[in-house]
């Protein structure tokens, strides 16, 4: 029996264990995620449901989700180079999809239960299926269970694209530079030539929105920053590219939200500093390192549960007479609590199970079964009766032949087992 080799699982968890985790990245993650939470509570909720406002203050700047996509692209470049690409893709999807799918089901159930009493839109089974399959943006007949989930289909598409392109020449040389600039230029051309909000064909809108072409340049920024850290992009080239992406992002919103673009530019400068400079282990942040790392570790879970469930909580609190500050604090606290639960009870254990020993044991067991089948004795086919051949004749008559079902020898693995039984 041939030996069975067991390759180590190259998971993101192991990568983090091998390399020190920089505090600066957690600072940016926490800033990005909680800017999204506060912006959705104070600014977006009164837009979606007028009765939920006003709040003590309003944060209208939209930059947090874009920041998270840039960080995701940067770490795709960091991790996809380590180990086999298929294993990397499985690890990424195993961390992302289970928590997302459960969050969709929970949010759907809560919305179905409370939306009729609130007079809000009641999602149907078609909406649930579209959100589980991540095709919400492909048709106007589909509704988002939670509008903040728009980043998840984009990330999944980016993971598949990285797994496809990295082993090929697109990951190096002039081809990569052309690819990065196409992520900026091509969506702008499509936006202003074919995809408008009035006259464009529905299939054009579906493809443009379904592929999130107005946001793909964000992944280009993450890749460009990584290339700069590897001395494959000059500082001048990076500055020009980042400036072009900022202008393009503002153009996609028809220059109606320039201050959000400015805020995004500021945080991009922070990402460049985190990627290429020393860790932010400085007085002030050093004393807050433990809670910052903890919040950074549950940031994905917080993102999944904060918006629509936060709107529901705010409506219940409003009906109970809770004031603006109380609603704001309660919604943020709920996002942290449920985000922690989603991380500890769903994201982490599912990732360990889907990438851990259970699959390795299954592969080993499957290989053992295949090897055992190969070692099975070959059963000779019975021959038709007839006169003995000359080769079967001895000096005094026919030579006895072994029975048809009695093998003349055993394979090595079976022979060893038989010797032990004796």
Automatic annotation (TrEMBL):
Q: Which domain of life is it from?
A: Bacteria
Indicate the segments annotated as coiled coil, or none if absent: none
Domain Acyltransferase, by residue range, is: 24-343
InterPro entries (UniProt xref): Acyl_transf_3_dom, Acyltransferase_3
Q: Which residues cross the membrane?
A: 61-80, 100-122, 148-166, 173-194, 206-226, 262-282, 294-318, 324-343
Which Pfam family name is an example for this entry? Answer: Acyl_transf_3
Q: Where is the composition biased (Low complexity)?
A: 379-388
Q: Which UniProt keywords apply?
A: Acyltransferase, Membrane, Transferase, Transmembrane, Transmembrane helix
Renumbered residue ranges of the record's region Disordered: 379-422
Q: Could you tell me one molecular function GO term of this UniProt entry?
A: acyltransferase activity
Protein name from the UniProt record:
Acyltransferase
């Amino acid at each position: 029996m041939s030996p069975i080799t067991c390759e180590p699982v190259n998971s993101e968890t192991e990568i983090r264990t091998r390399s020190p985790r920089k505090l600066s990245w957690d600072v940016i993650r926490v800033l990005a995620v909680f800017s999204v939470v506060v912006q959705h509570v104070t600014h977006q909720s009164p837009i979606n449901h007028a009765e939920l406002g006003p709040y003590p203050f309003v944060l209208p700047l939209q930059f947090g989700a874009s920041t998270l996509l840039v960080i995701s692209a940067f770490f795709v470049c960091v991790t996809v180079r380590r180990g086999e690409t298929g294993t990397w893709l499985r690890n990424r999807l195993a961390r992302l999809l289970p928590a997302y799918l459960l969050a969709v089901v929970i949010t759907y159930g809560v919305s179905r239960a409370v939306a009729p009493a609130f007079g809000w839109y009641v999602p149907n089974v078609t909406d649930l299926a579209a959100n589980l399959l991540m095709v919400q943006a492909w048709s106007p007949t589909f509704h988002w269970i939670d509008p903040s989930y728009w980043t998840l289909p984009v990330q999944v598409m980016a993971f598949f694209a990285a797994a496809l392109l990295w082993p090929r020449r697109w990951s190096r040389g002039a081809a990569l530079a052309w690819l990065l600039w196409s992520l900026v230029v091509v969506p702008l051309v499509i936006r202003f030539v074919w995809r408008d909000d009035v006259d464009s064909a529905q299939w054009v809108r579906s493809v443009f929105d379904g592929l999130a072409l107005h946001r793909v340049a964000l992944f280009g920024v993450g890749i460009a920053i990584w290339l700069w850290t590897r001395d494959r992009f000059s500082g001048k080239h990076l500055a020009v590219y980042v400036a072009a992406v900022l202008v393009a992002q503002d153009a996609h919103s028809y220059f109606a939200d320039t201050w959000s673009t400015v805020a995004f530019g500021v945080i991009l400068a922070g990402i460049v500093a985190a990627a290429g400079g020393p860790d932010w282990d400085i007085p002030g942040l050093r004393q807050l390192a433990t809670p910052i790392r903890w919040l950074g570790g549950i940031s994905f879970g917080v993102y999944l549960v904060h918006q629509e469930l936060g709107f529901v909580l705010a409506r219940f609190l409003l009906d109970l007479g809770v004031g603006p500050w109380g609603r704001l604090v309660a919604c943020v606290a709920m996002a942290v609590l449920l985000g922690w639960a989603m991380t500890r009870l769903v994201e982490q254990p599912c990732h360990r199970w889907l990438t851990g020993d259970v699959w390795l044991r299954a592969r080993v067991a499957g290989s053992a079964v295949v090897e055992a089948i190969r070692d099975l004795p070959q059963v000779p086919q019975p021959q038709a009766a007839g006169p003995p051949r000359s080769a079967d004749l001895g000096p005094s008559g026919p030579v006895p032949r072994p029975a048809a079902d009695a093998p003349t020898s055993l394979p090595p693995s079976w022979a060893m087992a038989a010797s032990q039984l004796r």
